[in-house]
Design goal:
Elements (H helix, E strand, L loop, with lengths): L1 E7 L5 E7 L3 H10 L3 E7 L11 H16 L4 H11 L3 H15 L4 H6 L7 H13 L2 H58 L5 H15 L1 H19 L2 H13 L3 H22 L4 H10 L4 H15 L5 H4 L7 H13 L2 H60 L1
Antiparallel strand pairs: 1-2, 1-3
Helix pairs in contact: 2-3, 2-7, 3-4, 6-7, 7-8, 7-11, 7-16, 8-16, 10-11, 11-12, 11-16, 12-13, 15-16
């Protein structure tokens, strides 16, 4: 719960703010630990809104905090500096709450864990390893590098698909406009001549009439389908089924596999290099994989290690991880350089994703243009063929 407070700071200045606590007594205790003289504490009726923090905010925060900590600046003072410099006000409030919790006795990782929408489980696990190992500045630097690489990979895929999506969306909107608004006008013109229309024109007009007179039902069916699909993929069975289908899609499935391998390798390599125990690292990687099929494969690797086996053994039993990846992981396990081998795999697959995305873009663009030409051309031909026939009829009548 959140509590509003009014108190005097150590210098005698009256300050007001909010603090998270289990009850009023806990709130007073936390304020006294901060050397505040409490004047009043009341429960805040205003709920804390979810912070809208972007990945770039986290990267900058990690870089700056790493620099401050490595320079010998105490963590509380470092957080105060970053709070005052944060451009994102939501993130500034999160930093303030983390600082308050640390002052109340919580560890840095536990304070960050209270904000799961801002700091992922992977982030918190690495911070915890940094606290235990006394290398928090190094861990923060690695986190920044990891987040930058992950963001770059995500941006590559997004930017490559943006143009085809925009062009495809425009094509759909043009088609809908022609079907709903333009074709009915031509229908009225054709009806005034009373001549029999060509089959292609009757088909287009029939489709136009169906959409125009059933638009509400079509919208309801589409909306219901989208809602039902979202409910389905929230279930364990549905999520696994959909994720499995995505990985088997032609072209797109190959890219998704390469993205998954790059993410798996870089995440696991970063966690291991940061001193996170292998089982905890694999559990974190599984939860952050974003794909139920891959998550289960990683969990199988955990079982293998618990039984005295190796990570690479369960990876051989599926068609997600290529033999080259499995062999490199096996060599890394044998030589004790698994983290370095994982980074090499991640770098290689980052390049593979880049090449695959460029190939996909060059293939999708002409396909979208062909789609636009065929659909819009079909409608235009269907409308103009009877116009020529009517011209002939009018000339004969004249």
């Amino acid at each position: 719960m959140n509590f509003k407070y009014k108190a005097k700071d150590p210098k005698g200045k009256i300050v007001e703010g909010e603090i998270e606590a289990s009850d009023n007594l806990d709130a007073v205790k936390k304020l006294k630990n901060q050397k505040f003289s409490v004047i009043s504490v009341t429960e805040s009726k205003k709920k804390l809104k979810g912070a809208k923090v972007q990945s770039k905010d986290i990267v900058v925060f990690s870089r700056q905090l790493s620099t401050l900590v490595s320079s010998g600046v105490p963590i509380i003072q470092s957080l105060s500096i970053l709070e005052s410099q944060a451009e994102n006000k939501s993130f500034a409030r999160v930093i303030a709450r983390i600082k308050s919790d640390i002052e109340s006795g919580l560890s840095i990782s536990d304070a960050m864990a209270k904000h799961p929408k801002v700091f992922s489980e992977l982030y918190v696990s690495m911070i915890k390893a940094g606290e235990v190992g006394g290398i928090l500045d190094t861990i923060l630097d690695r986190l920044s590098t990891y987040l930058e690489s992950a963001a770059a990979l995500r941006d590559k895929v997004k930017s490559a698909l943006m143009y085809p999506m925009i062009v495809g969306g425009i094509a759909v909107l043009i088609t809908i406009f022609l079907v709903i608004f333009v074709i009915p006008i031509f229908k009225g013109i054709f009806a005034s001549f009373g001549a029999e229309l060509p089959f292609i024109t009757r088909v287009v007009i029939g489709v136009s009439d169906f959409i125009k007179y059933n638009i509400i039902y079509i919208a309801v069916v589409i909306g219901g389908g989208v809602y039902g699909f979202k409910r389905y993929i929230r279930t364990q069975k549905g999520r696994k089924k959909v994720d499995g289908i995505l990985l088997k899609l032609p072209v797109f499935g190959i890219i998704l596999k390469k993205v998954a391998i790059a993410k798996f390798s870089r995440t696991l390599g970063t966690l291991i290099k940061s001193g996170v125990p292998i089982l905890q690292a694999l559990e974190t990687v599984a939860k952050t994989s974003g794909n139920k099929v891959i998550e289960e494969i990683i969990l199988d690797s955990m079982k293998s290690i618990k039984e005295g086996g190796k990570i690479s053994e369960p990876l051989k039993k599926n068609d997600i991880f290529p033999s080259m990846v499995v062999q490199m992981i096996a060599v890394g396990e044998e030589t004790g350089s698994l983290d370095n081998m994982l980074f090499k795999i991640a770098d290689f697959y980052d390049q593979e994703v880049d090449a695959a995305v460029k190939g996909l873009t060059s293939m999708i663009e002409p396909l979208v243009m062909v789609f636009m030409g065929v659909v819009i051309g079909f409608i235009v031909i269907a409308m103009f063929v009877p116009m020529f026939q009517m011209g002939e009829i009018a000339s004969k009548q004249g």
